[in-house]
Amino acid sequence: MQTTRAAGESQAGLIIRESEPVNLESPFDQLDGYLTSNDLFYVRNHFEAPRLDVDSFELKIEGAIRHSFAISMAELRKLPAVTRTATLECAGNGRVFLSPPAEGVQWQLGAVSTAEWTGVSLTVLLERAGLLQDACEVVLEGADQGTPKTPPPKPSGEICYSRSIGLEKAKDTLIAYGMNGEDLTIDHGFPVRAVVLGHYGMASVKWLKAIRVVTEPFQGYWQTTDYAYWDEVEGSPVRRPLGVAALKSAIAQPRMRELVAAGESYRVFGAAWCGDLVVNRVEISTDDGATWQATTFLDPECPFCWRRWEFLWQVPQQRGTYILKSRAWDSEGNMQPEEHDRRFGSYVIHHTVGIEVIVQ
Ligand code: MTE
Asked: Is ligand 1 within 6 A of the CB of residue 45?
């Protein structure tokens, strides 16, 4: 397994999708290592990143618990540390492929990256706090605040970024201060953030300032108005928060409209991932989905992590335009869909995407 690229080794930087607030896409076509180096890890910020003073910073644990407390970074680092590798994908990754076009940051393929996260399990903090019997969710609250850019309805005044997870997800949640062996950078949540394994990136609250245990399902803006979708219960629409990341594969190379030499061998490669299951098959089509062939994995199965794959394509002699597609399967036999599910609006974009290449 390859590790992080050495500093300075990256060929090109992040792609600017928005500068205020900063939203940067990882150059997915450069996918080479298993881990994304910190300087190429995508950045998704809704507001300006807060600059927090690590020496005076305290993370509060409060709400439906027996002992409320605040913990400094020095104290947090003394608790048993765990390191987990995890892929984070923004729920809006691939939005540019939606038709008709959707509002929002126009991500292509690269709002997805993988890192080794180091921190303390949320379970350790909750055990120390002692949950009250009626505790039902944990709200993770960030220190950044502002007015959401999305169209109304929106709350009056500034709000902070916060989201909740169910209590059962605490064991898969890290309160992380390290990323690929270094301190978090400001854009990735310094000094501390949540990393909710298997969920879309929006759950992994950065600049975490409070962990609040609540006794009723949290109805915050970032899980009712934004990052939410309409489900149906007995014929009635019900609004639900987005959560588990959907099964997806994507082609890193060839790039869209790349020129490929007729008659040569070409290494097609990419990655595949899914929320809480593992990907166990990726297939490739070089004829717009008419026929499919198996690819070879470069990485072992690892829950919550992507697997890179490759396929040696014998490029036809016949010149012209070819459409390449990849599709993934998970450990329960589900296949990546061909169409976007419109219930999810401009999120959960995990359908197969055709990469057009020109053979000449
Ligand atoms: N946490 C806070 N406090 N503020 C934010 O804007 N963005 C969320 C999440 N956590 C966000 C946040 C979203 S939408 C994503 S996809 C991930 O952070 C991105 O994490 P990254 O910037 O480290 O890649």
From this structure: yes
